[in-house]
Inverse folding.
């Protein structure tokens, strides 16, 4: 087992801001980077997990995760709930695993507009800006590992980010996973200003949408939700200044949902995607229902290998629910198949 600590690493323009840490019981090494975005003044938080004794990774076993519209990547993919961290599960399978926070989310740079009242500035962190942030993260990983392409996974709004990136950069994408994908039509969207505040009660309502009322506690235990919610608040240094405590989330996504998706104008063309693609969704998803996934699947005409998977007893936040391992194992099976 290799234990690494106190090592400063500089790679190109990327700055390693946290010394690598390893779990003595497992051999997982965690590294945290702040990398420059393609736009000046923006630093992006990138978390990496891999086995401590592994030195070489190829395109098949490198993957980048990105979050949805409201919460950062670490709370969706790296939370220690029953079954363990999704990122660590993938790392144990001998993958080099990364997760990025788009600007304004999590530990990435929060623009000055987030320190002012929401209505004082227009929405920011649009899908176009998010694709640029993913591009910076992908290029960082390609250079770091000396490969030409990697795997991508997006959740919810993250599917429009990763789908858009894959459509524009087919040569850099090995496989693509679209989990709980956004596709037209979407419900009516209302928003105001640069960002919105989300408190616990509102988050809980959204997290259980679509789950039968008599199954909520079984499928989405309150204790799990509370652990996830506390982790989200910990990523926002201003969360405790609100009563009740609240998380700030950029409104760029809301702008796009209203002005593009709501108008029947998707932000990317699925037909331009060439990589093998998995579209996966829970049957009880009340935010991006299975009908959206089915519609999107029909548009993926350029992907030679594509599949649509519907999972039972899971909602939009299935990655944080009782049946989460069904989702995680299905995705892993797809990732480990040979690319034809």
């Amino acid at each position: 087992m290799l234990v690494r600590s106190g090592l400063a690493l500089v790679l190109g323009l990327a700055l390693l801001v946290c010394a690598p840490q390893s779990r003595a019981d497992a051999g997982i090494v965690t590294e945290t980077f702040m990398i420059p975005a393609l736009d000046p003044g923006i630093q992006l938080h990138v978390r990496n997990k891999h086995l401590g004794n592994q030195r070489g990774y190829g395109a098949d076993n490198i993957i980048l995760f990105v979050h949805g519209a409201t919460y950062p990547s670490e709370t969706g993919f790296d939370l220690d709930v029953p079954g363990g961290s999704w990122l660590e599960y993938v790392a144990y399978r001998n993958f080099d695993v990364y997760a990025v926070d788009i600007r304004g989310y999590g530990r990435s740079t929060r623009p000055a507009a987030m320190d002012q009242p929401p209505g004082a500035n227009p929405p920011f962190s649009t899908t176009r800006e998010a694709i640029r942030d993913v591009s910076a993260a992908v290029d960082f990983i390609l250079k770091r590992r000396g490969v030409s392409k990697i795997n991508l996974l997006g959740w919810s709004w993250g599917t429009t980010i990763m789908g858009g990136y894959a459509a524009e950069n087919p040569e850099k994408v090995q496989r693509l996973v679209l989990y709980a994908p956004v596709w037209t039509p979407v419900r009516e969207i209302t928003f105001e200003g640069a960002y919105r505040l989300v408190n616990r009660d509102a988050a809980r309502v959204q997290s259980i949408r679509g789950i039968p009322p008599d199954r909520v506690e079984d499928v989405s235990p309150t204790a799990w939700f509370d652990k996830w919610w506390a982790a989200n608040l910990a990523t926002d240094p201003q969360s405790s200044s609100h009563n009740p405590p609240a998380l700030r989330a950029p409104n760029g996504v809301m702008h796009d949902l209203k002005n593009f998706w709501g108008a029947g104008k998707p932000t990317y063309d699925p037909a331009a995607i060439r990589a093998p693609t998995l579209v996966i969704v829970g049957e009880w998803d009340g935010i991006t229902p299975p009908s959206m996934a089915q519609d999107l699947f029909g548009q993926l005409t350029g992907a030679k290998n594509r599949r649509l998977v519907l999972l039972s007893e899971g909602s939009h936040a299935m990655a944080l629910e009782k049946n989460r391992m069904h989702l995680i194992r299905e995705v892993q099976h797809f990732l480990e198949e040979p690319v034809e």
